[in-house]
Structure formats: structure tokens, C-alpha cells
Amino acid sequence: MDVGLAIAFAGIAFMVWALLAGVSRLMLQNMIRTTAGLTDTLPTVTQNVRLFFVDTGFVIDLVGLGWLALSLTLIFFANWQKISISWAWLASLVQSLVAALGGMLVSSALYAPHIITGEADDSILSKISQISLPIVIAVAVLIWGLFVYYMLKRRASMRPFAPSRNDGLRTNR
């Protein structure tokens, strides 16, 4: 059952990757078409993200395909009980997280040309709200990563030479 769920989630993680990459590329291409001739006035971050997601976007597609192959390879070895299935889950989850971070980067780059510079009279709570999400995301990823590491280490230290749960399913013929 774990293997089946891991295979399904590896496919879902790849679909998240592909959809975010495709939508991000389409949005940037539309921005390029609408700002034709105005590329000198685009912020540097927008120009760099455009270079990465549009001009060399095929690299992102190939990385997503390679990541899927890695996840499926980990599932294959986990099926033969060579490694823990947790590694396949971890690879798929990290692929989804990286895709989401890429989508956030593209969204920020698309929004950057529309930012009006000037002094705004923001309240203290408004300033805290402007910086809280990236900090909370970084802390959440750190906590999640430490938890996964702890669980994998704990699993490895628990009775390494004891019979596995699948040993009871084998016949003694």
C-alpha cells in the first residue's frame, strides 16, 4: 500500500511541477508580449526570472522529469526493501515544495514592475505582515526537515536486524 501511495504521490508531485512551470512560463511570455519594447524598464529581478523561466525553460522541464525518475527509482528500491519508502516520499514532497517556491518567485517577478515606489505610512503591524510569510515558510520548512531527519534516524536505529513486518507474510515451505 505504501508503494502504491508513493507512486501516486510521485505522479502528483510531477503534475504540480509541470503545471506550475507551464503556467509560470505562459504568464511571463504574456508579460513579454505586452511589454514589447519596454524590457529596459523592467526590474532586474523580472528580467532574470524571465531569462530562467522562458529562455531556458526547457531545463526546468528536464529537471522535473529527472526528479520524477529519481522518485520512481527510490520507490523501486523501497519495494525491494533496500531502502525506506520515506526517501521516495521525501523526494516527491521536496519536488512539490520547489515547484511552489518557483511559482512564488515568478509571481513576485511579475508583480515587481507594478510596485509604486514611494513612502507609505504603514503601521507597525502592516510592516510585520509584509515580512512574516517568508519567515514563517522558512521556519516551517526547517521544522519539517528536522522532523523528517529525526524520524528517519529513529527508524534506522530501531532494531536494525529484527524481522520486518513482511516476514510474517512469507510461507515456510
Molecular shape:
flat
Got a strand count?
A: 0
List the secondary-structure elements in sequence, H or E.
HHHHH
Instruction: Note the beta-strand portion.
Output: under 5%
Number of H- or I-type helical stretches: 5
Average pLDDT, rounded to a whole number, is: 77
The biggest sheet amounts to: none
User: Percent range for helical residues?
Assistant: over 70%
What radius of gyration results from the CA coordinates? 22 Å
Terminal CA distance: 26 Å
Structural class: mainly alpha
- Spans of at least 5 consecutive residues whose pLDDT stays below 50 are none
Could you explain the architecture of this structure?
It is a single chain. With 173 residues, the chain is mainly alpha-helical. The chain has helices spanning 2-34, 44-55, 57-79, 86-111, 124-157. α1 (2-34) packs parallel to α4 (86-111). The mean pLDDT is 77.
List strands and helices in order, with pairings.
Layout lengths: L1 H33 L9 H12 L1 H23 L6 H26 L12 H34 L16
Helix pairs in contact: 1-3, 1-4, 2-4, 3-4
